[in-house]
Write a structure and sequence with these properties.
Strand content: 5-15%
Number of helices: 6
């Protein structure tokens, strides 16, 4: 397929930038699949990640260390993935202005994600304190003096703010992946970007992006003589 006319197209002059950007995107898709696998492990092993202690006065739950290990691993993979996406957009931005905005918005995704992670700390601690307050109370009403209420509220605010910022950044990353499809005339990127919106189907989207990036990169590397390449 040919890239659509009217847009900057890959040429032998931009071959290095194209190859590096596609390599970044390829690795981002691989990390996406790894992150999806960690999420599946998290969902499948939910019962092993926390303990519920039931007494006559109520129930409390405590997260196992494995929960924090899985959460940190998933968070680290997500940050690496976004850094790779940002690297791919940033590498193409000088030769194709369409990638300047996605490159900037990818930074918002990282910032929002970090804020969400920071918010989860007081939120989870507050949730544990609240369950303890309920368990120690003689009725089902949450005592006003429960120390976990303030922590939970702070956590909720941070998670909401970070979530909004991350959503804007995520949309920017999807836009950048879509524009890979426009630059190289390959619809696998566009379909993959759409599927990344939906839970579970995002794994299929990552596979399509991986296949598209690998295929197009091979053609870019074979580019040698001047003139518009065929995709």
């Amino acid at each position: 397929m040919y890239p659509p006319p009217g847009y900057p197209q890959p040429t032998p002059t931009t071959r290095d930038a194209d190859r590096e950007a596609l390599t970044y995107l390829l690795w981002a898709a691989i990390i996406w699949l790894c992150s999806g696998a960690v999420t599946l492990v998290l969902l499948a092993g939910t019962a092993a990640l926390y303990t519920v202690d039931t007494t006559t006065s109520g129930s409390t739950f405590v997260f196992h260390p494995l929960f924090y290990v899985v959460a940190v691993a998933s968070g680290a993979l997500s940050i690496v993935q976004v850094l790779l996406l940002r690297g791919s957009f940033h590498r193409l931005a000088p030769v194709d202005p369409r990638f300047s905005t996605p490159s900037t918005l990818a930074l918002l995704l990282i910032a929002g994600f970090v804020i969400v992670l920071l918010g989860l700390v007081p939120l989870l601690q507050g949730a544990q304190s609240i369950t303890g307050c309920i368990a120690s109370s003689n009725n089902t009403t949450l005592p006003a003096s429960c120390g976990g209420i303030g922590q939970a509220l702070i956590g909720i605010v941070l998670v909401l703010v970070g979530g909004i910022i991350a959503l804007i950044g995520y949309i920017g990353c999807l836009l950048g992946i879509w524009r890979f499809g426009s630059r190289y005339g390959n619809d696998l990127f566009k379909v993959g970007a759409i599927l990344l919106i939906f839970p579970l189907l995002n794994v299929v989207g990552a596979i399509l992006i991986l296949v598209g990036a690998s295929s197009v990169r091979a053609r870019v590397e074979a580019m040698g003589t001047p003139g518009p390449p065929r995709f």
